[in-house]
Design goal:
There is one protein chain. With about 325 residues, this protein is α+β, with helices and mostly antiparallel strands. The chain has a single domain (about 30-325), classed as (Glycosyl)asparaginase (Glutamine Phosphoribosylpyrophosphate, subunit 1, domain 1, 4-Layer Sandwich). It contains 10 helices and 14 strands. The protein has helices spanning about 5-10, 45-55, 60-75, 115-125, 135-145, 155-170, 240-245, 250-255, 260-275, 280; strands at about 15, 35-40, 95-100, 105-110, 130-135, 185-190, 200-205, 225-230, 230-240, 285-290, 295-300, 305-310, 315-320, 320-325. It is globular, with a radius of gyration of 18 Å. The structure holds N-hydroxy-L-asparagine. N-hydroxy-L-asparagine (SD4) binds near residues 207, 218 and 238.
């Protein structure tokens, strides 16, 4: 019998960017498709376009993923960057990470009043002996590098959401179902450039109404993001605590290294999360997207209605990911 789950695994649903049937479960070491960029959520469509400007001009995957993330951080009435929802004290605190094809990586977390945390993460990678700066130190570094300190104000949407949240003040992460765009807090993207190098980036305002000081998976290399050029690249979204405790993205890479397709490997990581606590998994969303060194891509989520977007010379599609439920 074909259950809903097996059906979704085999038939990732192409949505109307361009009609394109995409049996991602069959992709394993097929033809090399490069350059290519893939991004989380429906907002990935605009993000991919920004990254494609770099990739189509023979630019590097690293420049492409930074450009895509910057595009998202600029959408001030959205969920990622300074327009995102605040912590429970009404402050927006940002996390971001970036990684290239040579295990170079940089990250920032609990960063306030800086518009482009992804670019600060890249500066950490390229201009410091470290990989991770947080809080006041990260902000000080950003300012020293020429980033300006923005005003400490919430976007219209975030203000409304926060005022509504204050009525109950209950911390319960919503399952990010994408009825419309912007119902998420994070943008993750992965690119393979014309020379065959992979890079990835992840930028987020974190879970809405989190405790002050909370850091999620997105800036943690190996959890929210991982790139191993010989194998592939992976980025996560959803409840970061679950991704951190299962070593999410590096686990997906290790499954791919053992021969799994990107989608099979993402599914294995979701299975691992569900196995930790099946009851808890029913109430949350986590999703992974992955790209291998040949440009094969895949995704898997706990809940349905997680989308990801793909752009290359041969396809421009938005797919609904296969899901556990
Ligand atoms: C976090 N993983 O801070 C992020 C949240 C997210 O869509 O992906 N939201 O835990």
């Amino acid at each position: 019998m074909t259950t809903r789950r097996t059906f979704l695994e085999v038939m990732a649903i192409g949505l109307p960017l361009m009609a394109c049937k995409n049996d991602v479960s069959a992709q394993k070491g097929g033809n090399t498709q490069k350059p290519i960029v893939i991004s989380t959520w429906k907002d990935g469509e605009g993000v991919n376009k920004a990254a494609w400007e770099v990739l189509s001009a023979q630019g590097s995957a690293l420049d492409a993923v930074e450009k895509g993330a910057v595009y998202m951080e600029d959408q001030i009435n959205c969920c990622v960057g300074l327009g995102g929802n605040p912590d429970r004290e009404g402050k927006v605190t940002l996390d971001a990470s970036i990684m290239d094809h040579q295990f170079n990586c940089g990250a920032v977390a609990f960063l306030e009043r800086i518009k482009h945390p992804i670019s600060v993460a890249r500066k950490v990678m390229e201009s410091t002996p470290h990989v991770f700066l947080v809080g006041a130190g990260a902000q000080q570094f950003a300012v020293e590098q020429g980033f300006s300190l923005e005003e400490d104000v919430l976007s219209e949407k975030a203000k409304e959401d926060y005022e509504e949240w204050l009525i109950t003040s209950e911390y319960k992460p919503v399952i990010n179902i994408e009825e419309n765009a912007y119902n998420h807090d994070t943008m993750g993207l992965l690119a393979l450039d014309a020379t065959g190098n992979l890079s990835g980036a992840c930028t987020t305002s974190g879970m809405a109404f989190k405790m002050r000081g909370r850091i999620g998976d997105s800036p943690i290399i190996g959890s929210g993001l991982y790139v191993e050029n010989e194998v592939g690249a992976v980025v996560a979204t959803g409840v970061g605590e679950e991704v951190i405790r299962t070593g999410g993205s590096s686990f997906v890479i290790s499954m791919m290294r053992q021969g799994m397709s990107p989608q099979e490997a993402c599914k294995k990581a979701i299975e691992r999360i569900v196995n930790v606590n099946a009851e808890r998994a029913k109430e949350m969303q986590v999703a992974f997207i992955a790209l291998d060194k040949n440009g094969n891509h895949g995704a898997f989520a706990i809940q349905k209605e997680f989308h990801y977007c793909i752009k290359s010379d041969v396809e421009e599609v938005m797919l609904e990911s296969a899901s556990w439920f």
